[in-house]
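so i finally got all the pieces together for this one. its two components total, 543 residues if u count the protein bits. some of the lines might not be protein, just check the labels. i wanna see the whole assembly predicted at once instead of chain by chain like last time, that was a mess tbh
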Amino acid sequence: MRNKNGFANLYLVLVFAVLYAPILYLMYYSFNSGGTMHKFESFTLDYYREVLGDTRLMIIVINTLVIALLSSAIATLIAIIGALAIQRVRSRRAKNTLLSLNNVLIVSPDVIIGASFLILFTIVGIKLGFTSVLLSHVAFSVPIAVLMILPHLQEMSPTLTDAARDLGASRRDVLTKVVLPIIKPGIFSGFFMALTYSLDDFAVTFFVTGNGYSTLSVEIYSRARQGVSLSINALSTLIFLFTILLVIGYYFLNRRKNRPAGPLSEPAAEMGVPR
Amino acid sequence: MKNKGKAYFLIPYYLWIALFVIAPVLLVVYYSLFDLDGHLTLDNYVNFFTPVYMKMMLNSFWYAFLITLFSLLVAYPAAYLLTRTKHKQLWLLLIILPTWINLLLKTYAFIGIFGTFGPVNHFFGLLGLGEQQILFTGFSFVFVSVYIFIPFMILPIFSALEELNLSLVDAARDLGASGWTTFRRVIFPLTISGVRSGCMAVFIPALSLFMITRLIAGNRVITLGTAIEQHFLVTQDWGMGSTVAVFLIVIMALFMLVTGGSRRGVRQ
């Protein structure tokens, strides 16, 4: 038994090592004055200076954040409405249809989402750039946020709304004073998932950005295609640190919110398809 | 709630479905009927059945299959062992963490690792194998893709294993089943829903990856995704691109029918 355990641990350690090695590798060479990713010459912070002094890049970072925050906020709003809409539907069949339609964008490959949105925006006459990127981020974030909110809505006891109505609350009061507070944890996780989807998206954005407008992942792609440049390494180190902060923040936020469910069960099951 | 109409507030959501779910699919189908000059034709569909595209499709499938298979082979034991660890949630968090790092950055790292002077080649040198061309091969494409998809395979399997009733395993052992038999007859069948949703989360995107093929496989591997990107953004042949997309949609729908019911495994 002991022996088996040792082997098991070794396997897990190996998986973790493989998962983290490339990331650590990137970070390590971001300090290399040699300018390559294979021979470490001496320690330098030059690439960090380069990244932080690059105004174009800073604008792109701000673009990315603006798009992420704005699109998640709008998507969450639409998703709340969507969850209410799905909840309202009585017939099982109609409900399933609505749910399937909701999930189409989650299971579709990114290239198809990107290509079809490109066609859509061109036909409607929306100029490629900020608007098209924002709209597409809203579009693909909505379904995931709906899926995060819906369970909370379903768990809510219908007697609560009935009681509120009986006590004379208006439709509006029921929504703002009863329903919304109850589904708040779902709204938060929906917003957060939308945020990470938006920050991480490459393929869809790549299709709908015109010239001159770029988000971080599109920029990374075009730089990486030109070969190794250690400023990408420095950038990725900064992003990694930022991500860790974000994850830790989310972890504690979620742990406070729903203790019984276990802090990660929700995002874990919902991580879905990478973008 | 009374259904007294007045559901105006639901409009944004239905508008979203109409505009961003239904319209795009219809538009792709519509565009697939036009050639480069804008003539209504079925040529694109005829072209799709020529050896070039057939080979590409088989290629795409073969790679997606390999990627799914290897992800599963690595992920299942890992998920199983994870459920046995003490601080499960913490370890799970550590599995999830790399998925939050941009996919392109992780792919970019492999340009260095697999490069001519990278550590892997250095290691080969030490073994006396000499320098190998690793980058720009099918192998590197599969490896990097598996690397990227492993967490997405581990998560659903982990959830399925967590729900597994351990007394069933104990019962099997008590009744004299060997470790392997227990796994084959009890554990695996009971966690098949997790395996299904894991495979779905890997197979479909694996069919359409184009950034990894571009960065790592150097156009050596051409998948359906690469073809769509090429047609839409490089050759501007939206008709043919749409045709490939239509087939990808059909394949996807078929795949979901085959693995049907597995949506439940993803937990609603």
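Chain A touches chain B through 91 residues (CB under 8 Å).
Residues 201 and 275 of chain A are 5 Å apart (CA to CA).
anyway lmk what u think
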